[in-house]
Design goal:
Blueprint (H helix, E strand, L loop, with lengths): L9 E4 L6 H12 L3 E4 H9 L3 H25 L4 E4 L8 H7 L3 E6 L2 H8 L12 H16 L4 E4 L6 H11 L1
Parallel strand pairs: 1-3, 1-4, 2-3, 4-5
Bound molecules: shikimate-3-phosphate.
The site of shikimate-3-phosphate has 10 residues, from loops.
Length: 171
């Protein structure tokens, strides 16, 4: 275990479909003493609705408020690997929580993301040209994602174990 961690949380950030949850879970298992948490799942359980349902019934702003509250509660725990929703980086207030831990950005090419999220319901990509929309979102968020402590590039050929290896090497 890297000494720079000192028991602090590891927050995964990055676009939808970049593997934050799968890789985060694998990292928590490998580290042994860390628990895995996923802010999207916590939010869905608390709301009793799926994320697309929350977007539809309450809108994005309200979703972002709820997401920030989940981060507040998660940040009170130690020794967690946390997968955050792709838009968690958008609000500056969330960064004061993220920066109490080690922030890891999983960087994946938009074309690879499109293949990975095929068939899943993504409220922000409900447009005739989802790849262009995804690229726009990535461009808007680039600066935020790049505030991470560590950036790990995940290539198309890498599976979850391979991406987890790359993260462990970078920690
Ligand atoms: C979002 C990403 C999703 C989810 C919501 C909004 C975003 O999470 O929070 O649909 O703004 O990029 P994942 O990144 O876990 O898919």
């Amino acid at each position: 275990l890297s000494p720079r961690l000192r028991g602090c949380n590891i927050y995964f950030i990055g676009m939808m479909g970049c593997g934050k949850s799968a890789v985060g879970d694998a990292i928590a298992r490998r580290m042994g003493t860390y628990n895995f948490l996923d802010t999207d799942i916590i939010l869905e359980r608390a709301a009793g609705m799926t994320i697309p349902q929350i977007f539809e019934s309450e809108g994005e702003d309200s979703f972002r408020d709820a997401e920030a509250k989940v981060l507040d509660s998660v940040h009170a725990h130690v020794r967690c690997v946390v997968s955050t929703g792709g838009g968690m980086v958008l609000r500056n207030q969330n960064w004061s929580k993220l920066q109490t831990g080690l922030v890891v950005y999983l960087k994946v090419e938009p074309e690879v993301i499109m293949k990975r999220i095929e068939g899943t319901d993504r409220p922000l990509l409900q447009t005739p040209d989802p790849l262009s929309r995804l690229k726009e979102l990535m461009a808007e968020r680039k600066q935020k994602y790049e505030q991470a402590d560590v950036t790990v590039e995940v290539h198309e050929s890498m599976d979850v174990a391979g991406a987890a290896d790359a993260v462990i090497r970078a920690l």
